[in-house]
Design a protein that fits this description.
With 196 residues, this protein is an alpha+beta fold. It is built from four helices and twelve strands. One of its GO terms (cellular component) is proteasome core complex.
């Protein structure tokens, strides 16, 4: 029952993920963090079985940190997304797939903000906004209607609030709390967004 969402603004990427950990009809906890920082300027959101997300996220984070220490610089968001995609694709073709869907958000000095949508089959595409999970069925129409390129943080937050309201109104499950973070040139920070 995971739900991830992100949208690219003028000089930032606004991301959100529900904080529930559930299995079948039972909620295990309500304070799960489904976002993993990959560098000072890149963030990965993961949806899928908790074990796969935890193992895969830790593996990617550790290897990107090792590459940064070895090379003396952090990978760009584009390079990071391609590295994640390759690892998903390699696992799918060898030892068994990670059942993880992800969004990779980052801001680079030259390329600016970017968002990559990846699924558990290793498909990757650069998008202006994206969502994973059952909540995406309800929010893509809202994003299609209200998203526009070059939005300010306030405008993007307003669109995010509309998405939260749509989920609360239409989705059978109760996704009542979200972690919201912004990735920009200053790094990654958590922001407060009033939830309906």
């Amino acid at each position: 029952m995971d739900f991830l969402i992100a949208l690219v603004g003028k000089d930032f990427v606004l991301t959100a993920a529900d904080s529930a950990s559930a299995r079948s009809i039972m909620r295990m906890k309500s304070d799960m963090d489904k976002m993993i920082p990959l560098s000072s300027h890149a963030l990965m959101l993961l949806a899928g079985p908790v074990g796969d997300c935890s193992n895969f996220g830790d593996y990617i984070q550790a290897n990107l940190k090792l590459q940064a220490l070895t090379n003396g610089f952090e990978a760009s968001t584009h390079a990071t997304a391609n590295y994640v995609r390759k690892n998903i694709a390699d696992a799918l073709r060898s030892r068994g797939a990670y059942q993880v869907n992800s969004l990779i958000a980052g801001v680079d000095e030259q390329d600016g903000p970017s968002l990559y949508y990846l699924d558990y089959l290793g498909t990757m595409v650069k998008v202006p906004y994206g969502a994973h999970g059952y909540g995406s069925f309800f929010t893509f129409a809202t994003l299609d209607h209200h998203y526009r390129e070059g939005m300010s943080l306030e405008e993007a937050t307003d669109v995010l609030k509309k998405c939260f309201l749509e989920i609360k109104t239409r989705f059978l499950m109760n996704l009542d709390s979200f972690k919201v973070r912004v990735v920009d040139a200053d790094g990654i920070r958590e922001v407060e967004v009033a939830q309906p």
